[in-house]
Specification:
With about 120 residues, the chain is mainly beta. It is about 0% helix and about 55% strand. The relative contact order is 0.32.
Length: about 120
Amino acid sequence: VQLVESGGGLVQPGGSLRLSCAASGFTFSSYVMNWYRQAPGKERELVALISSAAGRTNYADSVKGRFTISRDNAKNTVYLQMNSLKPEDTAVYYCNARFFGNDYWGHGTQVTVSS
């Protein structure tokens, strides 16, 4: 099982980034996919989730209206489009796959929002 995040980097406040998470080794289309983040000194928090059939999404209040989660089950990939980024969005962003008792994590990608 592998979850490989990409797309992080340094961006100025107000800018945008698109994170990708490529999955392999499991039946991607059956899993709820989540994006979490962890800032220095803080607990890991759920940012966004998308159901297996992409019919349902949910967002943390802090990112509603700015972030969009999507998935392409044909490409085994989940995305996080992040717009209007703020310094408080700075964190390591993790991709997570969850289905009943299975819980898989990527290694994370750093997002830094700074001028």
